[in-house]
Amino acid sequence: MKNSLYKYALIFFSLYLISCSKEKFAEFNKDPDAVTTLSLDYIFTRAIVASNDNDFDAYYDNYNYISRWSRVFLQRTGNTFTVVDNASNSNNRYGRFFQDVGPLLTDIQQTIDKMPEDTRARNSYKKAIASILKVQQAWYVTDVNGSIAYQEAFQSRYGGTLTPTYNTQDELYKIFDTELKEAASVLTTTQAVDQFKFENNSDLYFNGDEKKWAKAANSLRLAIALRLSKRDPERLKTIVNDVLSHPAGLMESATDSWMLQARKNFTAGGNWNITGNGRLFVGEYGVVNYMWNNNDPRLRFFFRPNQWSEENFQAAKDQGVISKTATFDTRRYYGQYSNPDASKDAVKARFLNPLQIKSGNNTIALDTVSRIQDRIFQPENNGGGGTGIIPVLTYADLCFIRAEIAQRGWSNENAEQLYYKGVEASLKFYDNLANVAQVYDYKALTEAEINAFKSSPNIVFKQSTGLEQIVLQAYLNYFRNFNEAWALVKRTGMPNKDTKLMFEDWTNEGQTLQMPRRFVINYPLAGDLNFNNRTSAIDEMAKDPDFGLPSSIQGRVWWDKK
C-alpha cells in the first residue's frame, strides 16, 4: 500500500519478528500455525489502517454517489437524471469489513480469550477497545446493507461455522448497544491486575487512553440509538437514559473526539484523488446560499471563491465577453443547481455554462460557482503538503446528537446549550482541519466570528424552530462525514424545500426523483458457500414493504422506516 501508516505497520511487524529469538523461528518452522500469533498492537494498528484506508470507498461510494445524493457537493456540470439510478462499483465498505477489518479485530478478541488466565486478565482493556472498533465498523456496514453476518462471522478459524447466520438490524442494534455498554464498563472499572495497554504508536485514535475509549463507546451508543428515532423511539429513550447515567461519561471537548489524524501522504494519489478523471466538485446551491446568507465562517473552509476576481472581471469586459457597463459582484461564493432539470431554466443554465476569457495563449473558464476546498478531503491535492483528519465521531457530532434528543423530549438535557456547544465545536473543528490540510488561502477563525455567527438571526436558537436549527447545523457539520450527512437527511427528512437551508426538488421531465437510500443488495450466486443464509436474510428483509426490490437503491433498510 501507498501510505505511511501502513509502512509504519510493516516496520512495526518487522521489528517484532527481528526481536524473536532463533528458538522462536525454529518453533515457527515446526509449527507453521504458530506464526499467526502476532503482536496485538500490530494487529490493532492494521485494523485501524484498514478501517480508514479504503480509497475505493472514497472514489465510488463517497465522491460519486453519497456526496451528490446528500448534496454535500456535486460536479460543476450539475446532475443528470441518472444521478438517482446508478450505484455501480459501490458498497466497498462491505468487502473491507468482512475481508480485513472484522477478521483482524476478531483475532485480537480470540487471541486474548485463549491466553492463560493471568495474562488474559491483564488484556481486558485491549479486548474491550477492539470490540468498540468492531461494533463501529459493523454499524457502518449494516447502515446501508441491512442484515449482516455478525455474531457467527469470522469464527471458522476458531472452530466456528463457515456458514454464519445473518443478524437482522433489529437484533444488531441490541447487540451493538450491549457490547458497547460492556466495553465502556470494563474500561471505567479498575481491574484486579495491572492492564496491558496499546502503545501510543499502535492506537492511532486515542494513544491507548482507555478513558477516552470509554467515552467514545458510550457516545457511540447515542449515535447508533438515534437511528431508531423512526423505528423504535421507546427503545431509543431507554438507551439514552442508560447512557447519560453510565460512569464512562461522554465526550467533553474536542480533545475527546474520535478521529484519525492521518500522517502525510495517507491519501496521496490513486482513488483518493478528488479532482481526478475530469471531476471538478462544487458547492450545492442551497448549501452555499444558506451559509453565505448567515455569514457562516465555515464557508471559506468548505469552498473556494469563484473565478470572478476583479482582474478576470476586467479582462472579460475588455475582451467583450460581458457588457462594458457590467458591475462587479463582490460576492464570490455561489452554489451549483443540483436539479437535473436546471438546464431547462434560463437563469439556472447560466451557472452550468461558464464564460471564457483569454490569458495569453490560455483560456480561463469563469465559473460562477465555487469549487470545494479539495484539500480537506485530500490534503495532497495539487501538490499540497498538509495532513488530513478522518472523523469517526467528533465532539461536535455528539453535541448535535444530544441537542436533537433533548429537543425531541427524549432527555432532560438543555437542547439550546448543546446546540450552541455544537455550533462552536463545529466551527473550530473545520478551522483546525483547514489549517492542517493547508487549504487554499487559509484564514484562521476568530472568536469574534464565532460570536457573530452564534448571534445572527437565523442561528440564534428559538424553541419554535429548534429542531430544524439543530438538524441544519448537524448537516453542515457532517460536510466531512458523507455517510452521516446522508443518514441525517434520510432519518429526519431535512434539509428539504421548506427548511431555511433549502433543497429544491429534483425533477426529470416534471417527475420528482427520489434520493437513493441504500446500496444494491445482491442475491448470492449459485455455489456460494453461504447461499442459504444469505438468501434467507434477503427474503426476510423483503417482508418489510419499505424494503422494495433488493436491486433498488431507493429501497430502505429496517431503521429507515417511512
List the main descriptive attributes of the protein structure presented here.
two-stranded antiparallel sheet; 10 strands; disordered N terminus; 20 helices; globular; 562 residues; mainly alpha
Would you summarize the structure shown here?
With 562 residues, this protein is mainly alpha-helical. The protein has helices at residues 4-18, 22-30, 40-52, 55-69, 92-113, 117-121, 124-145, 169-187, 210-225, 233-245, 285-293, 299-302, 310-318, 346-352, 395-407, 415-437, 447-455, 466-477, 482-492, 531-541, and strands at residues 74-75, 148-149, 166-167, 258-261, 281-282, 355-359, 362-366, 389-393, 507-508, 511-512.
Architecture overview:
The protein has 20 helices and ten strands. It has helices at residues 4-18, 22-30, 40-52, 55-69, 92-113, 117-121, 124-145, 169-187, 210-225, 233-245, 285-293, 299-302, 310-318, 346-352, 395-407, 415-437, 447-455, 466-477, 482-492, 531-541; strands at residues 74-75, 148-149, 166-167, 258-261, 281-282, 355-359, 362-366, 389-393, 507-508, 511-512. A two-stranded antiparallel sheet has the order 1-5. A two-stranded antiparallel sheet has the order 2-3. The longest helix is centred in the last third of the chain and has 23 residues, at 415-437. The chain is mainly alpha-helical and 562 residues long. Helix 15 runs antiparallel to helix 16 (415-437) and helix 18 (466-477) runs antiparallel to helix 19.
